[in-house]
Write a structure and sequence with these properties.
heterodimer; A: 200 residues; alpha+beta; Methane Monooxygenase Hydroxylase, Chain G, domain 1; Alpha-Beta Plaits; 2 domains; 4-stranded antiparallel sheet; 7 helices; 12% strand; B: 202 residues; disordered C terminus
């Protein structure tokens, strides 16, 4: 059984929470498709991690919406907003279903995979090693998009996610999710894992 | 076997389009919500119709591929992926419905809506437009107006902007960005009259 945690009320900005939920659901979709196309279980597991994060966010969002209602007009409008929250959650559920497919061994037809692999952009997941030169530098500072044509789109530190990181410092043991060309990703993964000392 | 290959290429093409369409819908639905734009919400509803047709075509195509028994699992994977794109699209359409249903002036909506500083807008490329026949790279819309192109609609096709996309008369360009760039965006893309945009590097 999964651990079910009690979720406590935290005051949050409704708009920022919705935007965060949107960003997470988009990341989940990207990861889930990649997981399916490459039969990659690690990517699928990341989707499931994000799904848990999303579930928490929905609760917190709804708590904040409930406290904001003062009269029936407020309630009418806020239930629309709550609806958006739950729809965003359904989007993430859809992504989680693709990831579930991967974890249950339902594969994508090999010919389809072959065609998709010709697509320009791919996703990769890599853990930062102690001796990688990424460690201790910010995502902006690394400037990977310009250097290799692949970029970090999310960082997971334990159970904490940073989506679309910019000023965040990359630390050893962080799990990076990167998007880019196949060759760019290869360089990025080698550098992050410490296998290569530069991006050459 | 060559026939199979062709059919699968078509299936893939459809799946890519389903995926792209559902993601565009999500993007537009959220823009409609955050910038409180009924126009953009309507755009999502149009895409929903397109999506439904595409999805049916896709499923028919998968079902018509005469796979061997061992292909069945692979085909099931495809059908499931199609269903997921459809679910994402449905959720996006429902978000657009929330926008279409909401009272625009209600104060609590301010909890969600972006400050008036940012906006989303759609403009048609006219015959007299400065960007007509140019690629997006040449059109320099973000540099000139501060508006970022989200989607281009051509007839009943919706496309993600690429640097190489050539703008044609009648294209609907949907973009978001700072509200003070909106006027410039309308002039540059809509091309109403002989007003030329001031060149910053003059």
């Amino acid at each position: 059984m999964n651990d079910v945690e009690r979720i406590e009320y935290t005051p949050v900005s409704v708009r920022e929470t919705l935007i965060l939920m949107k960003d997470i659901s988009e990341l989940m979709i990207d990861l889930a498709y990649s997981a399916a196309l490459f039969g990659n279980r690690e990517l699928a597991e990341e989707v499931m991690e994000l799904e848990r994060k999303m579930d928490t966010l929905v609760y917190v969002l709804n708590m904040n919406l409930m406290l904001a209602a003062r009269d029936k007009e407020d309630a009418e409008t806020l239930s629309g907003v709550a609806k958006v929250g739950s729809l965003t959650n359904s989007i993430s559920d859809a992504a989680a279903d693709i990831a579930g497919m991967v974890l249950h061994g339902i594969e994508i037809h090999p010919i389809v995979r072959e065609v998709f692999q010709r697509a320009e952009e791919h996703l990769a997941r890599v853990q930062v090693s102690e001796d990688s030169f990424f460690a201790g530098r910010t995502v902006d500072d690394l400037d990977l998009a310009a250097e290799v044509g692949a970029d970090i789109i999310a960082i997971r530190r334990g159970r904490h996610w940073m989506i679309n990181p910019e000023k965040e410092v990359v630390l050893p043991e962080d799990v990076l999710v990167a998007r880019g060309t196949a060759s760019g990703l290869e360089k990025l993964v080698k550098a992050a894992s410490g296998e290569a000392k530069d991006l050459g | 076997m060559a026939e199979d290959k062709q059919l699968f290429e078509k299936i893939c093409g459809d799946l890519v389009e389903l995926k792209d369409t559902s993601e565009m819908m999500m993007d537009l639905a959220y823009s409609a919500l955050l910038y409180n734009s009924r126009q953009i919400a309507e755009e999502v509803m149009m895409l929903e119709e397109r999506m439904d047709n595409l999805h049916t075509e896709f499923e028919l195509l998968v079902l018509s591929s005469r796979g061997e028994p061992e292909d069945a699992r692979g085909l099931l994977g495809l059908i499931r992926m199609g269903v997921v794109t459809e679910r994402i699209a449905d959720a996006a359409a429902e978000i657009a419905e929330v926008v279409l249903r909401s009272e625009e002036t209600h104060p609590v909506l301010r909890m969600v809506i972006e400050d008036a500083e940012e906006t989303v807008d759609r403009v048609m490329v006219s015959e007299g437009s400065l960007v007509l026949g140019k690629t997006l790279r040449e059109a320099r819309i973000p540099q000139e107006t501060g508006m970022w192109v989200l989607v281009i609609r051509r007839g009943n096709r919706w496309m993600r902007p690429k640097p190489s996309t050539v703008l044609e008369a009648g294209d609907i360009v949907i973009a978001s960005g700072y509200a003070d760039g909106e006027e410039d965006f309308r002039k540059l893309v809509g091309g109403d009259g002989e007003q030329v945009l001031p060149d910053e590097n003059f």
